[in-house]
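Now produce a polypeptide, keeping tokens residue-aligned:
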Amino acid sequence: MKLLASLDQRDRRLLLITAALVLCTIVLLVLVHPEEQPDSYIPSTHSAAPHGAKAAYLLLGRLGYVVERSEGPLDSVAAKADAHTVLILAEPTRAPSQQETAAIGRVLASGGRVLAAGFLAAAGVPDEDLDNQSPPQLIGGVCEAEPVGFSPLAAGGKVVMRGVRAVWKLDRPSQRAAFLCANEGVIVTYRVGKGTVVWWATASPLENRDIAAPGSLELLLNSLELQRGDKVIWDESLHAAPAAAWDPLQDRVILALIAQLFTVGLLLVVARGRRSGPLRPLPAPARNSPMEFVRSLGGLYRSSGANDVPVTIAYERFRARLAQRYGVSGAQTADAATLAATLAERFAIQAPSLRHDLEACENASRLSHLNSRQALSLVKTLAGYSDVIAGQAEAKTTIVTHIANDRGTIGPQHEPVDPGRNTTQRRSA
């Protein structure tokens, strides 16, 4: 509200109109934009479109089976896989990576079952044996697959398969075809370690438009072979683009847009910041009073119990002043007894406790029982001695000045006359 109050009426009206247009645009995009493309051809469990797989996913749950989506990495599925795990890979939109292929192999090694439907799904299962030179009449067309052999997969009868892109070669004895189209394998099953792989040439039997067709649901249930305690995991991670780190060098358009927005914002701040902002008085300068500093320092010493520190500082300053201002040689290095004798002789200080006071100041840092009253008394005593010395020095300076002035006003002195000296000698002199 402070921002609106600081703007004039025209700017406020423009801002409100812009905000209303942005809000209307967002609402229209949410309401009008479709959730998915109707012809995406992705058998996703989230999609209710003809090529989606939402009906099959919900139907398995209604039949009492434990079924869940997996939109995270396949490594998380492989980490929890066991003999009751059934993994569905329905028409991936990209080929599984080497890491994802290894995760599928771990699911099979733990005794799980993998239903891989589609051309790209075969790239993720071990011992893949696709034939890319399929008969032309099968590629992209509609095929009525015929069951062969005595496999449980063939118990449901014929099934319609749409959009076949490749078939299985069937040149390995361990891989058995359950359904054929034009004598080509379109549904194959084989063992991999403890697990089982079931491959479909296309995922059309489990899509929404064909799940109710004759044989489609039976084929799905027979391929899964669900038992008590099994858990169906329907993978959705292979229906999205692989996560990749953002490369600033390749995404120059985004960088250019960010730079433009930053430049526009900076220009707005520079153009309107100083003349449209609120008026505020200049900050008052900080008041650092000497007494405030003294009180703060005294509080610090009081809280830490360092009563000897002020005495030591005052004593060192007292000795430095004697050496620098009054010319007392050795004042900064002499002990208390020598310094007391020097002061008594030079400045005629007759205080009987001078030596005792200086020794107390010198030994203050070694006194553990020194309290604040004693420390204050010693500092005051040093201040008193400083005043006496300053007075003595000033008096001596005044006397010397008077003597110098007197000599300057008397003038040159005449030599006295010797009465015993004769006149001739005085004249010759």
